[in-house]
Amino acid sequence: MVVVVDPALLQEEGGETLLLSVRNLGCSCAIEKQPIPRSVSWIRRIPCAQSDDVTCTSEPHVVMQMTVDDMVSLIHNYIQEERYGRCDCGPTLTSWVQEQQRRNPNKTLRVVVINLDKYLSGFVLRSQKSQSQKFQGLVAGKDGGRMKKRKNGEVKTLPEISRVEIEEATVHLQLHTGVSVCFFSTWKDFSDHIAMTTKAVAEVPFKHQKEKTGFSFCLESEWVGGQRVDKSGKGLLHVWKRQIQQLNRVSHDMASAILAAYPSPQLLKKVYNQCNSADDKILLLSDLLIRRGARITSTTRRVGPQLSTRLYLTMNSCDPEQVLKPT
């Protein structure tokens, strides 16, 4: 993999961190001007089997680092257009990204903004200061809420936007373009994101090849060898678990929950026979708890009536043409 970095990124104070992160992966790094400004893209080098030549193909993924100034200005234009109907403010966040997509139709773009929290913190302080000055002016009978204008070229003042307006604009962007915006606090976080994306892009061909099978009905590799059962019966529990998992959309956690309550099909069959009605049999497993994760991150849900019904039909139906409806 070759990580292609726009030179504008290296002019920032975190440019060295980005380069170091890429080099630690063992990837090559090329510094070239990109069609999308301040962006990172990827090139895959594919060796030819017949010769020593190498074919280079450009990957579709592009990560662009947008400055806080540009992000705030584009979102401010979006707010002016959406809320006040003003169309003379310039490009909005959505229209700017759509223009980049039009110019680069084969690219999948993601936008990254670094240290936007600093601007938002300053916005809160400025709002509090403005309210305080306005209150003091009202008490003194003067207009204390207005600040003196700065001289032209002395300080660039960004428009005021809130966190809610940022969320509104980014959601509008994702709905209309499919492009998401990631916010990072430091250049180290951004560099780690580029490293993670590089790994993900590099593994795409391997994952695609792994998903391919010679036949549509061929099971996954871990299922091909079957389950070994010795003379003492060791391994039967895993055989029962695999039988449950053969049902459509039955996960490892679901099968484990049923296995904990009924460690063998014979025990489950016995309980079915003890039920008083057909409805009791169908809903026998629906209230079993499925646990996911561990400790603080653990969650629970129930097996539910649909899986309970399918397993009941599997265990009790005498019709060889019985259809188990997927959930």
UniProtKB/TrEMBL annotation:
Q: Which residues form a coiled coil?
A: none
Q: Which GO terms describe its cellular component?
A: Holliday junction resolvase complex; nucleus
Q: Which InterPro entries match?
A: EME1/EME2_C, ERCC4_domain, Mms4/EME1/EME2
Q: Does the keyword Nucleus apply?
A: yes
Q: Which residues form the ERCC4 domain?
A: 2-273
GO MF terms on file? Answer: crossover junction DNA endonuclease activity; DNA binding
This protein's source sits in the domain of life called Eukaryota
Which keywords does the record carry? Answer: DNA damage, DNA recombination, DNA repair, Nucleus
Q: Which Pfam families match?
A: EME1-MUS81_C, ERCC4
Its GO biological process annotations read: double-strand break repair; mitotic intra-S DNA damage checkpoint signaling; replication fork processing; resolution of meiotic recombination intermediates
Which compartments is it annotated to reside in? Nucleus
| The family this protein is said to belong to | Belongs to the EME1/MMS4 family.
UniProt protein name: Essential meiotic structure-specific endonuclease 1
Taxonomic placement: Eukaryota, Metazoa, Chordata, Craniata, Vertebrata
